[in-house]
Amino acid sequence: MSTTGFGNSIEEVAEELRRVRAEIALEDGYEVPTSAVYAYDLYRPDLDQILSVLSGDAELGDLVLRNKRLVAEVFADSA
After folding, report:
1. Which parts of 20-64 are beta strand (E)?
2. pTM of this prediction?
3. DSSP state at residue 34
4. 10-57 pLDDT per residue, tens
5. Which residues contact 51 (CB under 8 A, 6 or more apart)?
6. Spatial contact of 65 and 45, defined as CB atoms under 8 Å apart
7. Which of 10, 17, 56, 71 is most exposed, with the fewest beta carbons within 10 Å of its own?
8. 33-70 burial: b if 16+ Cβ within 10 Å, else e
9. Beta pairing partners, 36
């Protein structure tokens, strides 16, 4: 199971992660897997890049993602 969410702060993401993990844990016999929290460093796209995405010539993620790094792993109820 893959859950994706985005936030402006690690605290915001951790709170949402706690909520989602609690819902998943309610399912009978389902052990909640380890959750990973990543930080993304992004470039601000310029007009030419935006037009390229809108034209279907490029993917926005390919143009703006500078770096992705693991910042936390959450096990069991440690969110």
Report:
1. 35-42
2. 0.65
3. P
4. 888 888 888 888 888 887 777 788 888 898 899 999 999 999 999 999
5. none
6. no
7. 56
8. eebebeeeeeeeeeeebeebbeeeebeeeebbeeeeee
9. 73
